[in-house]
Amino acid sequence: MEESEWKEERNRMLKLSNDEAHELTVECIEQALLALLSKKKLDEISITDITKRAGVSRTAFYKNYQSKEEVIRGIISSVFQEIMKVVQAQIDFAPNDKAGLWWVLFEVLKEKSQLVSMCFGADQGVSFLEYTTQLAVDNLKHLSNNLYYPYYIGGAIQNTIRLWIERGMQETPAEMAQILIEMDNIK
Question: What is the pTM of this model?
Fold first, then answer.
């Protein structure tokens, strides 16, 4: 290997290492905040609490985030990216099956219920609403010609999810799908 090739390879490996270090730092910060949220409310948690728990410096925190609320929004974004993949797969499989779509959504939410519950507990309902609305706009506009339908569903689903989780998910995902289908058919 020539020296120029070696230097190029070394630089590629250093970049890879830096990217991996960045990903690890972000993951540690997110996990630390989630662990703290299981014991305290967001407004009772300091950046120092997060960095100590994560084992990172304040500088590392501020290289990645401007606030603890931004960390929560990042967590919510990651959860919704996972949810959107599953929902999109369901839409691709059966594009007009509303019941199947709702069932898949509640199934994934049940798997992520602790995380979703913590986000609501951290007063991130507005962030959650933004993502549920985007989920509806991106994935449900084909179900109705009405421009407002996905926005209506986004707000309704956010409140439905919140109540379902607050009540301890008493209904199964299949029952929740049926409830939503029945509500959507109310004339």
Answer: 0.68
- Encoded tokens for 135: 């989920």
Q: Are 167 and 117 in contact (CB under 8 A)?
A: no
- Locate 106 and state its tokens: 């509640």
Calpha distance 47→136 (Å, rounded): 34
**Rounded to whole angstroms, how far apart are CA atoms 20 and 16?**
6
Here the tokens at position 11 are 């630089």
DSSP 15-62: HHHHHHHHHHHHHHHHHHHHHHHTTS-GGG--HHHHHHHHT--HHHHH
The 10s digit of each residue's pLDDT in 89-125 is: 877 777 778 788 888 889 988 888 777 777 776 665 6
How far apart CA 182 and CA 176 sit, in angstroms, is 10
What is the full DSSP assignment across 83-110?
A: HHHHHHHHHHH-TT-HHHHHHHHHHHHH
CB 128 within 8 A of CB 165: no
Closest by CA to 105, choosing from 128, 76, 80, is 80
